[in-house]
Each structure stands twice: as structure tokens, then as C-alpha cells.
Amino acid sequence: MSAPLTDAQLTEAELAELDAHWRAANYLAVGQIYLMDNPLLREPLRPEHIKPRLLGHWGTSPGLNLVHTHLNRVIRDRDLDALCVWGPGHGGPAVLACSWLDGSYTDHYPSITRDEAGMARLFRQFSFPGGVPSHVAPETPGSIHEGGELGYALAHAYGAAFDNPDLVVACVVGDGEAETGPLAASWHSNKFLDPVHDGAVLPILHLNGYKIANPTVLSRLPERELDELLRGYGYTPIHVTGDEPAAVHRALAAAFDTALDAIAGARHAARVDGSTERPRWPMVVLRTPKGWTGPAEVDGLPVEGTWRAHQVPLDQVRENPEHLRQLEAWLRSYRPEELFDAEGRPVAAVLARIPSGARRLGANPHANGGLLRRDLPLRELERFAVPVDKPGATLHEPTRVLGDYLAQVMADTAQRRDFRLVGPDETASNRLQAVYAATGKAWQAEVLPVDEHLARDGRVMEVLSEHLCQGWLEGYLLTGRHGLFSCYEAFVHIVDSMVNQHIKWLRTTRTIPWRAPIASLNYLLTSHVWRQDHNGFSHQDPGFVDHVLNKSPEAVRVYFPPDANTLLSVAEHVLSSRDYVNVVVAGKQPCFDWLGLEEARAHCARGLGIWEWAGTERGEREPDVVLACAGDVPTQEVLAAAQLLRRELPELAVRVVNVVDLARLLPAEEHPHGLKDAEFDAVFTRDKPVIFGYHGYPWLIHRLAYRRAVHPQLHVRGYKESGTTTTPFDMVVRNDLDRYRLVMDVIDRVPGLAARAATVRQRMADVRTRHAAWIREHGTDLPEVADWSWTG
């Protein structure tokens, strides 16, 4: 089953050049882990040349260096536009070494020169205070992938390839990473890759046998079983196995040539011959020893080819003279005097197979996608806005209105193909199906007559894996394009860890001058907690917002548009923004229209504001109570409560405040969108009761506003994990967010009101009791709730 370890089309000179580059990269990888001085071993190693803390991962590095060496060859020989996603967790030493060799590291960091002094700086900075991480990170030229967390490499690679027809994206998948759920799902991405409009992905499954302390599943499968598994995923595996360098070089060169010929053939068949058959894309299965070329044995225990090679094979070099001796012997085994000249520069043989300019893996502009990003052509919102003659007189489904807007974005990007909508099988469920008028759903597998909207060149991507949706979109954005992730609110939690990594990436890139800003990662969370009429408790969780607002404030934004026009305004803003993670929470059910387009724009620009038409403030007097709201259902309940108060307690001065941008509740020093205390106090007062109806978990509002003067008077109603399959109004009653409970809260908290409004409070409680009996008898909400409208 393996590719024969015999002659590839390599001359002896080419073989020597490939091996020289590989040895040089391995030497540099070891040096980064261990050395802080004496980088070229001009003198015998002494303990003071060794870093006081040995951090880094050797085990995966020789394999990554091997792949990088051979990618250099095919990129140069074939003039490929290529990118590589480095999946193995802590492969930083290898990728940094190779980018230093090809000069792209010095291009980005001029002080790290390609000579002995620069080599010393390269070594010292690695996993050192003030330096760079041990994994492939934003600081690494050529990277679009944060290697600190496993599972996402292949999804990122496919995301980079979509709508990049000339790009080849190699992706090294470590055998530990291959055990993760997201990576296992990612193999199916080939069913969504259009050979006409998309680039190609070349997966390289690197099996070196072990994780941190255990064998890996795929490495222990018999080759035939593994081959059948990968063929079942739709790939044609090319196997390379060995531990003798010359033979592996020849076999891997042959494997890459075979794979790239197959990719070229698939492209020609689709683009020239008009074939509509789904290609069986090639992939490489590379088996080499873990920690290859490192110490075979340390302290009498085997290391090379075992889990002991995973991190630092010699971990007592400063204290143990035998470890120091072994390290020096290990470094000298690469024969650095043959690889670097008297000034420490790589010799000609090392550089012979490296591509030039933007073809270098460390310099390809696709790995710095902001350089390629173009602004979206967004049409005027007036074409899509709903007319609002007066608040609450009409209803629309906000996401359906947004769907018309997104369909226009899809149509206007049809030629440039740089916008995609992703989601887990929910585009139509979330009322965004208007986009199908502009593009279909990407699909390369079998199509049956009953199917609708499937298209080989579609730019709507649906797969029932939130991990894949997230990974595809991240790869797409990081290579310079735009997109939107639409998801049921409860299940976006599946990508909590992925968005965490992306936010860390964005935060880090803000400190890297050569990283150009990319389009924001935009979430539309709908089918939300308050309207899960037939799904029930399992689909009720609004906590993703809490997770996101724990992250770097400069990179995160959260919006709760209360109606269709505010959703349009927010959508225009987030689709135009850069370097953020934007979370937009909006309903798909019919919702009252509160604001006309210009009012919506002004309101969204403020982030929060007083709705004078909804309150009963009089003159210059401060209100007796503030009713605040964030979210479409809380907004309706707060306005219904305000209407009840107007009728039942007309002498009460009520202020209604709607919050669109949740970060406005934070102090200005804590978030770029935060309000200064004086501005906050002007809206919410310093000492009046504030009854806040919030879409999610109520304690988030307390956390955001705990420093404010009015916080002791702040009472928040929101979701408190009381859910089931029930009527829409019963959901808010169960969680004490309903209009009657809010009126009771006002009576309880406005000084002097409890006694004189006791009968009003009793009537409110009675309605709640009647509601409970009504829904169990009729299965619908009370008529005065179901037929409610705003009368002003």
C-alpha cells in the first residue's frame, strides 16, 4: 500500500540540497529550544549557553521541517501559489526555522537578521519573556492558524481554499489532532470544494506515533485499515513511511509530485473538460519517527520514536554534564559548518530549493489576508427597510428582512466571490432563504430530484457541524474575505473554544504592525431562548454572549437589535467592520417595528438611548423609575409594562431605555464602547430604581454595571434556566420577565409606591395566576397578551 521508497525524479544534487535544508531547519529548531548563546557552536557548549527554562516541542519539528523542505521544492519547480496550515500543536520551532531560512522572517522582523547575530536573536526569543510562543502563532510569518489548540487545521485549510481558485493549501494534520471531533468532521470538507471556483487542499496526515504520553489511534491502525478509512472519506492516500533520510526524501518528493499532478488533472477535468464528477482529491500519509534525528536514548531510556521525544528530550542540560554532552553531539550531528558560512548565513545549497518573493510560504499574501481584503459593496439600507409610521403599528420577521439584504450582498459579490454565509442546516429555518435567489448551497455530492437549492458553485454553506462552519469561516476571513455565521443561539456554544482562539488571534495581531486588518467574524444568533416553541428546554441557552464578553474588550462587540430596521443597521455596521468578533442576537418570529430607518440608525450609533415616546417623563423632573431593555422579547415586555403603568399609575414618571450595544453598559476605561460615568448617569440616573429586562442571564448585566452609582438600585430580569416546550408568553412568565412581573417590580422598588399601589400589584399577580390556568386549558396565550399592541 505504501508508495515505494525508490527513485523519484531527483538528481543527487537535488537530494543533497533538500537534505541540507532539512538539516539546517532541524538545527535551528533544536537551537531555539535550548540555546541563548553560542548559536553556531564556535566553542564547546557550557551551561551558561543554555536557557534557564527549557520550553518547546521537539517531537513534531523534524516532520514539519521535512514537509516545509519539500513544499519549497514543488512551489519553486511548479511556480505554485501555495499556503500551508500547520496543525500539530507546538510546531513553532520548525516553522520559525524555515521562515528564517527563506528570509521572510527577516522581512517581517528586520532585527532577526539571516546571519549569526540574527540566529542568536532567533534562538533567544523563542519561548522567552518578551519573545514569541512555542506554537505557530500570529507572530509567525505565513501562518493563518493558531497552533495552541488542536482540531481546526483542516477546516481552516478548506476555508482558505474556498473561492481561491489558483491556491493550493497544504495542511499538516498531526495524528494527535486527528483524534479530535472537529478534525474528524473536517475530512468531509471535500464534499463542499468546487474544483472550478475553489482552490485545492492537500492534507498531509503526519503519523509519528504518539501524543504527549500515549500512542495515537491512527498511527496504530494497520496501513490497510487506515487506507480504507481515508478512501471512505473520499481521498486517494499516498503513503510514505520510513526512517532513512535519503529514501524518505525520494519517496516524499514522488508523493508530492503525484499529488500535485492529480490536483492539476482534477482542475483541468472540471474547468476545461466540464466534468461534474466529484474529484477524489489526493492526500499524503507520512509516517516518520517522533523526534526523528534527535537523541536515541537518554538516561538509559529510549527517546527517538517514542512519546519521550514530544517536548524537551534532554531536560537537565544545565545541571547534568551528560545531558550537555548529548545536546552538543545532537547539534553537531547536523554538521552546521556545512550549512552556514563564516558569518552564519545559510549556504547556497541550503537555499537552492527555496522559492522567491511572495511564493515563499512565509511571505504568501493569503497568509496575511488583510492585504487582499476589499470592502464589501453594501447597498443603501433604504431599499430593504420596513416603513414605520408609528411605533408598534406593524410586525415583521427581522431575520427575513435581513435575508433580503444578504441576498443583495450575495448578488453584488457574485463575480468577485468573497462573501459566504455559513450555518448548520438552518438558513431557511432562520428566515434567510432569500439568499437562494442569488446563490445556492455548496454541494459536491449526489443530488436527488427532491433536493432544493444545491449548487456546485454555491456560496451558502450548510453542514451539521458548528465546528466546520466556524473553521471554514475563520479560514475564509483570514485569507481576506467576508462572511456571516448564522446559528441557533443555544448551539453556538459548541464553538466556544474556537471563538476564544480567534479572539486571541485578533488581539495579538493588533500588536503586530505587518498584520493587516481582516474582516470581522460575524455571528447572527437567532431561534433564540424566548421562542423555542416546539424545541423546548434543550434549545434554550443565551450564554454565548457571557462567554464572548469575558474576552479581550478591544476585539468583541455584542448587539441586541430590537426590531427589523435596527437589525439592518447593525448588519451594515458589522459587515463593514474589521478585526472584531461581532455577536448579533435577533429573532426570526414576527416582531413589532419600533423605529424607522433613520431613527434606527441614530439609535444604533448611540448604542443605547431613551425612547421618549414610550415613557411618561414630565418636564425637567427626573423619572421615578427607569425601565431598561436589551433584546427583542424583553423590549416588547418592557413596553407592555410601560403601557400598563401609564394606565394604572398615570402619575408615575417612567423612563424607557433600550440598549442595542451591550458594551455601552461598561465603563469607558474598560471597553472602547463603554460610557463615561456622567453619560451613563444621565441616562439611568444615579439613584432611581432601574428595572432591566434582559435577553440572557441577568447576572451579566450586574457584572457589566457593577461600578455604576445606580447599581444598588439595579434589578435585572432575564433567563434563569427555567424552560420547557410551552407558549411564548409562558416562557417569560416562567423566568419572571413578563410585563406583569415588571410592573410588580416597579411597585416594589419605587419608594412609597408599595402601599398606595397594592391593589394594582394584586391585579398583576392575578393575571399571572390566570395565565397559568389558561395555557393549560387552551394551549395558547391569554387573548390580552396574544392580541396586544402598542397604543402609546
UniProtKB/TrEMBL annotation:
EC number: 4.1.2.-
Catalytic class of the enzyme: lyase
Cross-referenced Gene3D superfamilies: 3.40.50.920, 3.40.50.970
Pfam families (UniProt xref): XFP, XFP_C, XFP_N
Xylulose 5-phosphate/Fructose 6-phosphate phosphoketolase C-terminal domain mapped to chain residues: 588-790
Cofactor requirement: thiamine diphosphate
Domain Xylulose 5-phosphate/Fructose 6-phosphate phosphoketolase N-terminal: 10-371
GO biological process, any: carbohydrate metabolic process
Keyword annotations from UniProtKB, A to Z: Lyase, Thiamine pyrophosphate
Presence of keyword Ligase: no
GO molecular function ontology, one term from the record: magnesium ion binding
InterPro entries recorded: Phosphoketolase, THDP-binding, Transketo_C/PFOR_II, Xul5P/Fru6P_PKetolase, Xul5P/Fru6P_PKetolase_C, Xul5P/Fru6P_PKetolase_CS, Xul5P/Fru6P_PKetolase_N, Xul5P/Fru6P_PKetolase_ThDP_BS
Keyword Lyase: yes
PANTHER family recorded: PHOSPHOKETOLASE-RELATED
The family this protein is said to belong to: Belongs to the XFP family.
HAMAP family reported for this sequence: Phosphoketolase
Protein name: Probable phosphoketolase
Lineage of producing organism: Bacteria, Bacillati, Actinomycetota, Actinomycetes, Kitasatosporales
